[in-house]
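Structure Section — protein described below
Tokens — whole-number codes for backbone shape
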Amino acid sequence: MKINGILGPIDIADLGPTLIHEHIATLDQAMCLAYPDWYDYEDTLNRFEIEINKVKAHGVKTFVDATPITLGRNVSLLIDAAKRVNINMLCCTGLYWYEGPWYNALEPEVLAGYLLRDLTKGIQGTDAKAAFAKCSTDALFGASDINRNMIIGTAMAAKEANVPVYTHTSEEPALKQGLYQLDILTANGIEPYRICIGHAFTSNNREYLIELAKSGAYIGCDQVGYENLLPIKDLAATVIYMCEQGYSKHIMLSNDKNITSDFMFGLNKARRSSESWVTGNYSRVHEELIPLLRDGGISQEQIDDMLIKNPRRFFEQQPIR
């Protein structure tokens, strides 16, 4: 069975150890177009190659760039990056949770038509096609009518193209946005096993995680190393607990890191510097989280579930058994 890679079709059986939710760059594309020096394109590629070589040493074979269109997806950067590294690379289509003025007229069917192009024809006039669809919900706009339409449009495109859906949710535990997303996606024809609820573990709400897993969906432990959101020792403890409860076949691991980003720069209202735009480190899953999991009694088979078998089953769109 094949899946769309950035440089062409990839055999799903060859995905191997996978980082399911990462980014090369999250940048305001309007500013990038207006100001060619907004960021350093070549430096981003160079540093990406360095970081990929580090995770390749840990056995990683597939890198999934989960940058949606309105978080700054740049297909030229993705293609050039993929050409530099001997690793499988996948990307997505979909919208981030932002809501601008034009979103008020957003119709799900219209959105689905646009997203479908990325999945079946190619992105921005290239041969690169998206491997999956992504939708997002966050605290600022929450479960608005616009957000619901965005999720419905994503579901429509994913169903037509027969691809899975990955989501972004807020780290605020009380919101439980993954359940809201599941309700909309499943009501629009996307089975739970074709869905991964992103950032679910960052809530550190074990009852919520079990509820998501019992639905038959995948759950993303995909913000490893965000100590301000959840210290890695606490994150490891919750992963261990979920594995002990029998849910290792639902969990997928990743870092959610960038090489270059103006997103965090803007949130922190920090003074712009080259250092403030550099956030990359794709190795924390392997160098910090997995040793903690092993120390906690998690078996290699369970680790293989989370890093190898679950990403493969997710893209194969097979029910979790």
About this structure: Residues 267-277 have pLDDT under 50 and may be disordered. The first strand starts at residue 2 and ends at 5.
